[in-house]
Design a protein that fits this description.
- By secondary structure, the protein is α/β, with parallel strands linked by helices.
- It has 2 domains: 198 residues, inorganic pyrophosphatase (n-terminal core); 117 residues, Diaminopimelate Epimerase, Chain A, domain 1 (Roll).
- 33% of the residues lie in helices and 17% in strands.
- The chain contains 11 helices and 11 strands.
- The strands form 2 sheets. A 6-stranded mixed β-sheet has the order 6-7-8-9-11-10, sandwiched between helices.
- A hairpin with a 2-residue loop joins strand 6 and strand 7.
- The N and C termini lie far apart (46 Å).
- The structure holds adenosine monophosphate (AMP) and manganese (II) ion (2 copies).
- One manganese (II) ion binds next to loops.
Length: 330
């Protein structure tokens, strides 16, 4: 085990958060629905850290964690149903608003317990009793690292692996503007503690099923460029024979690689007339406020929302809104 070193960052959790964690016995930790690598990485890193501190943590996420993350600690213990459990504290990780916790947060049963929010979304609505929100952090897992350091807990291979998973996922392999010297410093420490960077990168970024690639192919057939906004749709019909694949994971970032594009969007048709929208923007453009205005959230370069409507109508209305975001931030 290695002690976390002082890094280039002075970010630290509020002291009340450390007190609340220290006095908890059975904390319930909740990651957001449709979990990504930062949701599962921060859920399992925090769960493992608290377990190592002698607590009895319960890990929960409404939607099943993708099997790509099965190398993370307590992967098999993540509950999709929290009926019957009796926590004494609730901690939400990587969620910007309470709806993101989905069905595993039962207001009637957990509403009287203290709720801690740990998140890095600029659109966070501060829905906890105690909110630790760091929009400058590249991942919630970067925050869990600072928490580990503040608790003076050592890193080990298991913890370092879970922490690096969220950082690699949310920075798409250290590509985003929020990869600071501190992030690289921390990453060096995590590798030193045994986190296998190349294996994590392969697992979380270069790991697609043939069905997913087939869905990309079908969705790519619908690509349109409207001024600087590139978009594609993913319909229920396109994925009927694809064995349960839903999201065209990674496609929206791929679309943004088009030289002509400043903003990219993928619209995913869901049952019951809902459309999931996924946005990406190049440096200098901001899609978070459009996602927020549509009831979603995210970061300036990566955001999303779910809206109701017919997929083609939603596409044209939302693309019109995105075109307004083409004025670069001054
Ligand atoms: P995605 O395009 O699904 O990978 O999401 C990009 C970013 O937007 C992530 O940081 C998500 O947490 C956020 N996001 C996506 N959908 C929603 C939503 N419905 N509500 C709030 N945030 C969202
Ligand atoms: Mn996330
Ligand atoms: Mn995140």
């Amino acid at each position: 085990m290695t002690k976390p070193q002082p890094s280039h960052s002075s970010i630290a959790p509020p002291p009340e958060l450390l007190d609340a964690l220290s006095s908890a016995r059975k904390p319930l930790i909740i990651a957001h629905l449709s979990p990504d690598g930062d949701a599962i990485g921060s859920l399992t890193a925090l769960g493992y850290l608290l377990y190592r501190m002698g607590k009895d943590p319960i890990l929960a996420c409404q939607d099943k964690a993708p099997p790509a993350f099965n190398f993370l600690p307590f992967y098999d213990r993540i509950l999709q149903d929290t009926q019957g459990i009796q926590p004494d504290l609730v901690i939400s990780v990587d969620s910007s608003d309470p709806t993101r916790m989905g069905s595993v947060y039962d207001e009637a049963r957990f509403g009287d317990l203290p709720l801690i929010v740990i998140d890095h979304h600029i659109t966070n609505v501060y829905f906890g009793d105690l909110n630790w929100v760091e929009p400058m952090c590249c991942a919630t897992d970067e925050m869990i690292y600072y928490l580990t350091r503040a608790l003076q807990e050592p890193l080990d291979e298991t913890l370092a692996t879970a922490l690096l998973t969220g950082i690699v996922t949310d920075t798409r392999g250290f590509r985003t503007y929020n990869v600071t010297p501190a992030v690289m410093h921390i990453t060096g420490e995590l590798i030193d503690a045994g986190a296998p960077l190349s294996i994590i990168t392969e697992r979380v970024l270069d790991n697609r099923s043939l069905a997913l690639i087939t869905l990309w192919a079908r969705a790519l057939d619908t690509v349109e460029l409207d001024q600087g906004v590139i978009s594609a749709i993913n319909t229920l019909a396109m994925r009927r024979d694809l064995g349960g694949v839903i999201r065209a994971e990674g496609l929206v970032s791929f679309l943004l690689s088009a030289q002509e594009a400043k903003i990219a969007a993928v619209f995913t048709e869901m049952p019951a007339g809902k459309v999931e929208c996924s946005f990406r923007a190049r440096r200098g453009y901001d899609v978070s406020h459009i996602a927020l205005s549509l009831g979603g959230g995210g970061h300036p370069p990566a955001a999303g929302c779910t809206v109701e409507g017919e997929i083609h109508t939603v596409r044209s209305q939302v693309v019109a809104m995105l075109k307004q975001a083409l004025q670069p931030e001054s």
